[in-house]
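Recall the central idea of this unit: under ordinary conditions, the amino acid sequence of a chain determines the structure it adopts. In this exercise we apply that idea directly, starting from the sequence alone.
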Amino acid sequence: MKTDLETSRALSVQIAEAIRDAIISGTLIVDERLPSEAELAAKFGVSRPTVREALKRLAAQNLIRTQRGASGGAFVNRITFEQAHGQQITTSTLLLSMNDVDFETACEARFALERACVPLAALRRKAAHLARMRAEIARQARPALSDEDFCASDVAFHRALVDGAGNPVLSYQLAGAIEAIEPLMNMITFTARSRERIVALHDRIADAIEGGNPEGADSALAALGDYTITLARNVMERRRRI
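Accordingly, the structure predicted from this sequence is:
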């Protein structure tokens, strides 16, 4: 583990990076107990509060967990894809909001990524994935459903499709596209969209996935992407005229 620190950068950040790199490289393995705060302070030549701040950073990233008691301390965590979803969503949301990504660029990326999952979903989807998709379609068809709840159901439908691909790496990567970009798209288009049209396209997607027809699902998903972009253009054009 690298222990020489630069004076030009925050010491706690460098310590956290050194420990993180040791975890990634396998020098520190899952469930291994880290040296105590005092031992780490001596190793890095810093104060215990500095080490404590570094450990907080690692805990915030789910890289370590702390336990109290005589056998306690800080331990290397086993990160699951599900646990990492939240970080992926947060990062994607921040990237979109901080870097002025235009709607069509975000929409293009979101649908291109999801369409890559369609062949696998048509082949591997389980009954639970189809049941979730059908349940969300039924929910979306309720006239009294609020716009907020429709958006949440829309996200859940597409998450079920992506998860149906049976690939946890894809599900993790698509978490940002579905749960960060999809709400943004809904926020812009909800005043102009036809719920009936969206539900009909969702029905086509679910039917194709259930029938093992990736071409049909891809065609419906592409139509949904085109419809979404058209809606956004119309909404933005109306706003420019006001």
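Strands lie at 64-67, 73-76.
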